[in-house]
Predict the structure.
Amino acid sequence: MELDHHKGVARHLCGECCTKLENINVTLDGRRVLEDISLHLHCGELTTLVGPNGAGKSTLLRTLLGEVPHTGILHFLPVFGHGRPDAPAMGYVPQQLEFDRYSPISVLDAFSSALSRWPVALWHSRRHRQTALDALAAVHAEHLINRRLGELSGGELQRVLLALSLTPVPNLLLLDEPVSGIDLPGRELFYRTVSELRHDYDLSILMVSHDLAGITAVSDRIVFLNHRIVCAGTPAEVIANPEVRRTFGLEISDSPRA
């Protein structure tokens, strides 16, 4: 099994590690939210979901997480035949985390609580601290390990949550509008970090975003979702679509060539 430079994670061969959605339908409160969604999320690729508000983007992530009932087929092809095909390891970064900002909980406390059943107020093991440092280093945030969560900026907090989602390293990473409310430098750093992760860890990444300008440089594919998949392809192909351009207020006549 080849480890190469992938942070100790085996490099996947395309087709041996992927998530497939086939004809996924979701109905909530009598309303069809997702209709005939078919996607193939490849290892080592970043796919971004865009679309208008209420189009079902977050619902699709919740479906993958097993939080929403659905019809259709959702299955995972594991590496080298190991593991259950319906149970990939998933990491998840929400749009925002609700917590008491006056709480004394530190970044290291958050990692320790995720890694141990012991009360974090008692002690931090050397092993947990090193695990936290390694995960934080992957997102350029190791200097935050002793900071209190409530003291972090929006961008710093999202990078900490991203590091937590890598502990342990998942097969599929889900990001639900992770840069919402973050300033431009913070967004650029977050996108750059996520772009690095898909290569370093060979992850399948599915990210929800409204930031069409920001995601075009880092996405391998963009999927325009409006309850169904309207179009999907490279960033240039999707941005050239007239419905996409109307939705995001772009001039149709200025559509770029794919």
About this structure: Confidence is low (pLDDT under 50) at residues 1-15. The chain has two domains: 1-89+171-258, 100-168.
